[in-house]
Amino acid sequence: MALIVQKYGGTSVASVERIKQVAERVAKFKMLGHQVVVVLSAMSGETNRLIKLAHDVQSPPDTRELDVLVSTGEQVTIALLAMALKDLGLKAKSYTGAQVRILTDNAHTKARILNIDEQHLRSDLQAGNVIVVAGFQGVDEHGNITTLGRGGSDTTGVALAAALKADECQIYTDVDGVYTTDPRIVPEARRLKTVTFEEMLEMASLGSKVLQIRSVEFAGKYKVKLRVLSSFQEEGEGTLITFEEDDNMEQAIISGIAFNRDEAKITVLGVPDTPGIAYQILGPVADANIDVDMIIQNVGANNNTDFTFTVHRNEYTRTLQLLRGMQAKIGAREVIGDDKIAKVSIVGVGMRSHVGIASNMFKTLAAESINIQMISTSEIKISVVIDEKYLELAVRVLHKAFGLEKAA
Amino acid sequence: MALIVQKYGGTSVASVERIKQVAERVAKFKMLGHQVVVVLSAMSGETNRLIKLAHDVQSPPDTRELDVLVSTGEQVTIALLAMALKDLGLKAKSYTGAQVRILTDNAHTKARILNIDEQHLRSDLQAGNVIVVAGFQGVDEHGNITTLGRGGSDTTGVALAAALKADECQIYTDVDGVYTTDPRIVPEARRLKTVTFEEMLEMASLGSKVLQIRSVEFAGKYKVKLRVLSSFQEEGEGTLITFEEDDNMEQAIISGIAFNRDEAKITVLGVPDTPGIAYQILGPVADANIDVDMIIQNVGANNNTDFTFTVHRNEYTRTLQLLRGMQAKIGAREVIGDDKIAKVSIVGVGMRSHVGIASNMFKTLAAESINIQMISTSEIKISVVIDEKYLELAVRVLHKAFGLEKAA
After folding, report:
1. Residue B138, in any domain of the structure
2. Helical H runs in B111-181?
3. Which of B19, B57, B86 is closest, CB to CB, to A87?
4. Can you give the pTM of this predicted structure?
5. A16-28 burial string, b = 16+ CB within 10 Å, else e?
6. How many domains is chain B partitioned into structurally?
7. Domain holding A26: CATH number?
8. Could you tell me the residue range of the domain that residue B208 belongs to?
9. Distance (Å, whole) CA B18 – CA B38
10. How far apart are CA A261 and CA A387, in angstroms?
């Protein structure tokens, strides 16, 4: 008998029919003798509907009240699933975030979990109940309702699994696991049986959004066994996320190709190559609450240097205006930008023990005449920025070059 | 400076536009220097939508989970109104029933308020906030969400006014007060400036549903000054509900004509006129959870008697079947019924000190050849059951006979 936490996303509870299907899946696990805690998102579309309603009233909406509003989305689905489980003859009980007491800080709309009081859940589990918990929400020390931000239901699931010392946390989504890359671009893309925590983190942060990053970090910190599964398939073991490299039985050098077309590039040309110039440029950007991803500073000639960085594409125009406004002050010759770029990354823990990975990547892209505009590396990934129009081609040739279509 | 509790029903918060109008009305009271607590219902239609959703999943739905589900309706409106108030530059804060801590018993879907912890509200009011409270909901001693049943938002408003010792509890509805009768039937019907608590109770229980009965009882018990107003009119003082007869400045003998076409009549003919026969007939009816309203037993001849009572029209067929099933056992000659009846009542505290009211009522109906099938009286009302087809005529002639179109 195991204790399993199962998290179902918005598409898995999008209708009465789907909610009944989730109930049947839960019933199967109960029949096998397991204890089950279910974490739910709101019905897909509901959170956006509520946010729009809020903006119709006040724009931007007060964040405390926005949390009161949007937290109703999960409250609806937990009640309906508890009913569906009872309709199947199971014992079930729903809990809002406040009812569990998922204690968070008071950073409304992006709160962080501080503590989970799991005592009530444990006694209800021992009494044979399926526990159905509202994801994405908590409560601060003063009893104000908080939410964890987009994708926060994954975090709720992992945090509950950690608090209850669950045997496994299963994340049910509309994909049946983590793939070597997006199958819509590379039909040969293959589901990974296992992926390490660090690889998953890189894949998630690079746009392969199967899991919310914070939930993966949380799982890593508390060593929660995390599995990604499809809620639309009867069978399948999904992808297990492991925390030891040795657990990765496939031992591929490269696990996957991630990509991201949400970024834009800003280049500040001809600034004086003096100490503190990076701060002079990026300080005001940070002050304007603009997140910077990749940063490159070329060694300059004539005491001048070029400085390039990427921001989210939504911030492109604002960043460009900001820097042009201070061009004279920092002594730059010109500020230019490009929002038609894409970032492609190869990810794999095998990189640590293998050489020649980067050169293989660059050679593969060169063979297709794809120009590399920026490069950034970490211990387990190499990212390049290229012209957006070459994105699909780059992903396809890299997938093939590293033999990802073949099981290791 | 006064402390005012204002309750707005579902039609008053049915859209973003309406919610903004409520915010503007609240702002006016704030500008006059008053402290304001607002109690809201769900958007009209929302509670029914949620109940239907529940029945699609489980029928009948588990009541604990139904309360978790439907309580989201008010949680949405309180958040939106708090935003709208902030958008007008006011300080505002929403509270769910659980956040106030409106403690109830655990009778899900029809819970009763046991206690209200008003300390937080009071300090938030003193800090200049408009307090926006979700009506209709509370929490039991174990933290389970409860609801007070249909119309329960009125009760929340009155209970909060009692707990906070508010100067006035204003109930905003789609009518601008309590009328001498339904203006759709009698165009001359007149809004009452005041009505006594007892008259209001009789009017409400007889179908003039301006306020939920329990809220009026509650107001009476705690001597809350209750005023019914229209949320769709800019001006108007509505109807004040008073608790002392002397407060009723209008001093009319009859305050209004109430009516009800929701009942049906059952007659058990020729039962033995022996002690206990009423219990033999009504015991099984009560056991079947059927509410009985009027009861009449005629003096019998030949040791026989006829027994007549009324039930809700929805229970007519079931009651008839129930009694016909036990006809032989109770020794009745026949069980007959009629669901085409209506109850018309004249209500007024002036009846206590005036004679001839009943005979005036009967004479007025006789003059129109309206046959009276049943009569029941209390200290401040006289009700008659008549053929449904005469309902409008009866209400019109009684309204005129008692001079209700003229201000007292």
Report:
1. yes
2. 119-126, 152-164
3. B57
4. 0.79
5. bebbbbbbebbbe
6. 1
7. 3.40.1160.10
8. 3-250
9. 15
10. 10
User: Is residue A108 a contact partner of residue A60, using CB atoms and an 8 Å limit?
Assistant: no
Measured in residues, chain A has a length of: 408
Candidates A28, A48, A23, A53; CA nearest to A38 is A23
B50 touches chain A (CB under 8 A): yes
What contacts B203, CB < 8 A, 6 or more positions away? B178, B195, B210, B255, B256, B258, B347
Confidence band of A153 (pLDDT split at 50, 70, 90): very high
Assign B90 to helix, strand or coil: coil
Cβ within 8 Å, pair B69-A87 = no
Residues 116-175 of B with CB under 8 A from A: 143-145
Q: Are strands A334-338 and A263-272 parallel, antiparallel or unpaired?
A: antiparallel
Instruction: Give B113's pLDDT tier (boundaries 50, 70, 90).
Output: very high
Instruction: For residue A70, tell me if it sits in a domain.
Output: yes
pLDDT, tens only, A82-129? 999 999 999 999 999 999 999 999 999 999 999 999 999 999 999 999
Residues of A in contact with B86 (CB under 8 A): 58, 62, 65
Give the phi and the psi of residue B146 in degrees, each rounded to 5: -125, 160
Rounded Cα distance, A378 and A372, in Å: 17
What whole-number distance in Å separates Cα of residue A61 and Cα of residue B76? 13
B199: closest CA among B211, B188, B185, B187? B211
Q: Is residue A255 part of a domain?
A: no
A69 and chain B: CB distance < 8 Å anywhere?
Answer: yes
Task: For residues B7 and B18, give the distance between their C-alpha atoms in angstroms, rounded to a whole number.
Answer: 14
For residue A240, being part of any structural domain is answered with no
| 0.85 surpassed by complex ipTM | no
Quote the CA–CA distance of B99 and B133 in Å, as a whole number: 9
The runs of H, that is alpha helices, within B97-149 are 97-100, 119-126
Tell me the shortest Cα–Cα distance from A29 to chain B, in angstroms: 20
